[in-house]
Amino acid sequence: MRPGPCNPSGIRPSAPPARSLNAAAETVRRYDDAQVALLAELVRFRTVHEPGTVNAEQPAFRALAAHLRQLALRLGFDFQDLGTALVIGSGEGDERISLAHTRRIELIVALTEESDWGPFEELLVRYPPPQVNIGFDSQYPVVVAEKVWGGLWLDFAAAPAAGAGPRLTGLDGGSFISQVPEDASVVAEGADEALLGRIRARMRDPADGLTYHVEQTAAGLRLRVTGLAAHSSTPENGRNALTHLAALLAGEVLADNAGGRTVNFVNSLLGTGLYGERFGRIAWSHPELGPLLAVYRHFTGAQTAEPVGIGGATHVRLLPNAVNFGPSMPGLPYTGHSGHEFVTRAQLTANLRMVTAALAWLATADPPVAAAGADRTPL
Fold first, then answer.
1. How confident is the model at residue 64 (pLDDT cuts 50, 70, 90)?
2. What is the domain range of residue 235?
3. Which residues contact 225 (CB under 8 A, 6 or more apart)?
4. CB 29 within 8 Å of CB 23
5. What pTM, to 2 d.p., does this model score?
6. What is the C-alpha separation between 363 and 366, in angstroms, rounded?
7. Are residues 51 and 99 located together in one domain of the fold?
8. CATH no. for residue 104?
9. H runs (alpha helix) in 203-288
10. 78 pLDDT exceeds 80?
11. Burial of 257 by CB count in 10 Å (0-12 exposed, 13-18 middle, 19+ buried)?
């Protein structure tokens, strides 16, 4: 997924409800100065991973956990020390900011995100995560995709063709694994004039960046598509010849062999789009995105802001129904991950305001904005 807007479903979030805006205003009024003082307290703990040690066992991490526990209990929250992570929770019905929420909210503080993901992955086995998760470890407006390198190798049995329909042979496309295929071809044995007519009707306008070649050979009808090569990390810059070749045969009854199975697979699960909608519901179509986008648009005035993808990796990818919401602002220099990282007072206040409004909306949504059965929404 490329960095930048990626909202093919066209989310049009409504304005934040008054209850969440009021909660945000009250929270900033009561806690804006206090959060600055708290940040000054927390940065004093030297929570640096030492090779060969377990973070949760280091004195600085233990001191941080003790400090957060004391603070949580003083404010009336519950606190769990799970070793790899700390969980600070606010139960249903809590009216700390004059807002009786109907769902539990948890703040999960992971202690190993920058050094070793193994302990957190193990934790999720014994501590089932909530069904809706909002990370605070990336950027606004809403991060719905984190790039990762991966590959699927699918084998379709090369058994003799069975059943009616043309037999596809010699299916080929692409030059290397990280490429959007520029060329693709296949031979359809037993293709008749009626099939050829339907194939021609499915050909797209040349302005779409695709060129089609049809040739009758001794082996059968040879179809070839020329698209535009691109790196797989930027598929929007290319035109996938292989998926568009398969689209020429979409809906046709094909003989059951490796070629036919491959083309049917591409048409049923991949399609010709960029976003993989045929795999099922994807992050930017989740109902929680409407409130998050609406909150960001309301407080920043960026009415065209859309979900984005990034090149980094956070713990969010390990959790169900998870996205990142802040804390850095698009278009501004990133001030973290350096020897002199900092956050401006204005950004700290903006984060408090937007995160509070979003949580207040999600935690009081009726019906809840979540997967069925979800009752915990951690930040």
1. very high
2. 167-256
3. 183, 184, 185, 210, 211, 212, 213, 241, 242, 244, 245, 248
4. no
5. 0.69
6. 9
7. yes
8. 3.40.630.10
9. 241-247, 258-265
10. yes
11. buried
